[in-house]
Amino acid sequence: MPIHPSCKICVNDWPLFDHCIADLGLTIAYLFEDQFFPGWTVLTFKKHRTELFQLPREERAGLMEEVSRAGQALEKIFDVRKINYELLGNQVPHIHWHLIPRLQADPDPLKPVWCVPHEPVRLSAHQLTERIHRLRSALGIDPNQPV
Ligand SMILES: [Zn+2]
Questions:
Q1: Is the dihedral of CA 115, 40, 29, 3 positive or negative?
Q2: What residues sit around ligand 1, an ion, with C-beta below 5 angstroms?
């Protein structure tokens, strides 16, 4: 994977390694460190690219397949009202998707998550393992297989 030395995704500084769910092929899926919105997942593109138009058509299509696969896995697990898909890159300009299940119990379902003030929720080690295992199962991946 081409490394961009000032990019925190390229240098494995973010997302948190112990939050890794699975290698999906073109992307790696992680649980976001703040689980206030349960299931919030981040898919990082393995290559340092900043814009979708920089990708060859087939790679872009493959990326969207992986985003869709992850979204479907989240829908299997959580009581989803709507899944938000966000590709921003203002803070980390390396293609990464935020997939955020907005649950029936969402505190402010009409707003983007960035506009919902809240205290970040960190999972305990046990909760983290359990949530990652559920997501791996929903993705059709053996939960105990190493990433
Ligand atoms: Zn990068």
A1: positive
A2: 4, 7, 9-10, 48, 94
CA dist 134 and 123 (Å) reads 14
Domain 17-138, CATH among 3.40.47.10, 3.40.50.11540, 3.30.428.10, 3.40.640.10: 3.30.428.10
Q: Tell me the backbone φ, ψ of residue 99, rounded to 5 degrees.
A: -115, 115
Distance of CA 108 from the midpoint of ligand 1 (Å): 32
Question: pTM of the predicted model, to two decimals?
Answer: 0.95
Q: Which helix (H) or strand (E) holds 74?
A: helix 57-77
The pLDDT tens digits of the residues spanning 24-42 come to 999 999 999 999 999 999 9
Domain boundary assignment for the chain: 17-138
User: How far does the centroid of ligand 1 lie from the alpha carbon of residue 104, in Å?
Assistant: 34
**Could you tell me the distance, in angstroms and rounded to a whole number, from the CA of residue 10 to the centre of ligand 1?**
4
Provide the total of helices (H) and of strands (E) in the chain, helices listed first.
2, 5
